[in-house]
Amino acid sequence: MNTSYDVKLWAISRNESSKTPSYVVRWKVSGRQKSKTLRTKALAENLLSDLRQATKNGEPFDMETGLPLSMLQAKSTRTVLDFVRAYIEMKWPHMAAKSRDSISDALATALPALVKDRPGQPDAELLRTALRKYTLLPKAKRPVPPPDMERAIRWLEGASLDVVDLGETKTVRLALDAIALRLDGKAAGANTVRRKRAVLHAVLEYAVELEELSANPLHRIKWKPPKTTETVDPRIVVNPRQAQELLTAVTYEGRRGRGRRLMALFACMYYAALRPAEAIALRKEDCDLPETGWGRLLIDVSRPEVNTQWTDTGDAHEERGLKHRGRDDVRPVPIPPALVKILRNHIAEFGLGPDGRLFQSERGGVVASTAYTEVWQEARKLAFTPAQVASPLAKRPYDLRHAAVSLWLNAGVPAPEVAERAGHSVDVLLRVYAKCIDGHQEIANRRIDDALAA
């Protein structure tokens, strides 16, 4: 096989020679012209994106087919399991750790349903573990499986359906039914089902892109996923007094002052509406903390927590750009004097981490979610009544962010400004927090009264 790194890509163009809409992707490999016509613009954009990512990763391209080796490997597979493995090999280098975890979770649910009826099938939990911890990792990252996992993997490899079988809607429906259930047989959450279906859709689109399938069979299936709830439950939102009581209660919790060390972290979620992963990554250089008046945070890094098997570094916290933004985007967030004072006091008492981070564990590491969640649950017991503790009120630290955004909206801050500070689009902001905006019902009622009285 002759390969080359000399690759040039062109923009997608409309196929003018066809009456039905289609789109052409053109590129060159070592001077040889290559092109592919696809039925939809979305498919064409997916192919161009995959080719572009392969060039960024320094992947060699086959001069005969014009495809990067990862795509060529996927095209040469015969079973669904092998195709999925090749898909993961291709996607892995340019996916965030959380995305890798999410894709593995979805496919580990769907693949056991896409098998032939063969004797010796392992139980569902064993199959799921074999897929998650061994099979659905790139070859270079797969650990050596123990004997029971090895037997489960061998069974999967022998029982996996052929890729061509995915063209039948009855086959794909089996996968849809599988992602709609948990391991215990109960219905999965609506958001979980939606996320897993999106992964299945992407894998099938890739099969269409490589011409292994003529069309995505999901488009032919009348299957309704459970309705998802995007709006924030107003019952979780604390008022300013409750928030202050919680922050005070946090300082009473934990050995060696662990609660005091974490209080400023929670304060960033409440006063600045930071996501936990954004607050954990906050550095001194990101903070403007004047002695008086309002300050400002410049948010440009996030450290989401994920299992180490999904990261490139082996660390549980992978440094990423901001959610739904470009890698180099920065989000300025003005902060009130109360938070300025809290952060100044925190730095004076606890200092900074080796890389300038404000928040660190007792040993100087990145703060783990288990640590701050444990402190939070104990603080709720101190700050709330037993009835409130049993309720959804501020059940998670993340709910402080919801409380902050709700407070800003109810204070009359314009939605575009709130969206900018919180890192949302205006559309998402108003949809997610629609039920947390007080006063609209009363205004509507008065207007209806006025109309009826006229």
Share of residues in helices: 40-55%
The computed structural class is alpha+beta
What is the overall pLDDT average? 87
Provide the number of structural domains: 2
Q: How large is the radius of gyration?
A: 26 Å
- Alpha-carbon distance between the two ends: 83 Å
Question: How does this model look, in words?
Answer:
The chain has 454 residues and is an alpha+beta fold. The protein has two domains: 218 residues, no CATH class; 207 residues, hpI Integrase, Chain A (Orthogonal Bundle), CATH 1.10.443. Helix content is 46%, strand content 8%. The chain is built from 18 helices and nine strands. The strands form three sheets. Strands 2, 3, 4 and 5 form a four-stranded antiparallel β-sheet that branches. Helix 4 packs across helix 8, helix 5 crosses helix 6 and helix 9 runs antiparallel to helix 10. The longest helix is centred in the middle third of the chain and has 20 residues. The termini are far apart. The model has no long low-confidence stretch (mean pLDDT 87). GO terms for molecular function: DNA binding. It comes from Nonomuraea turkmeniaca. This is Site-specific integrase. Belongs to the 'phage' integrase family. Keywords: DNA recombination, DNA-binding.
Keywords, please?
hpI Integrase, Chain A, 2 domains, globular, single chain, three-stranded antiparallel beta sheet, alpha+beta, four-stranded antiparallel beta sheet, 454 residues, 46% helix
Note the topology.
Elements (H helix, E strand, L loop, with lengths): L2 E2 L2 E3 L3 E2 L8 E7 L2 E7 L2 H16 L4 E2 L6 H7 L4 H12 L5 H14 L13 H12 L11 H13 L9 H11 L10 H20 L30 H11 L7 H14 L4 H5 L6 E2 L6 E5 L31 E5 L1 H14 L18 H15 L2 H5 L8 H12 L4 H8 L3 H7 L7 H14 L1
Helix pairs in contact: 1-8, 2-3, 4-5, 4-8, 5-6, 9-10, 9-13, 10-12, 10-15
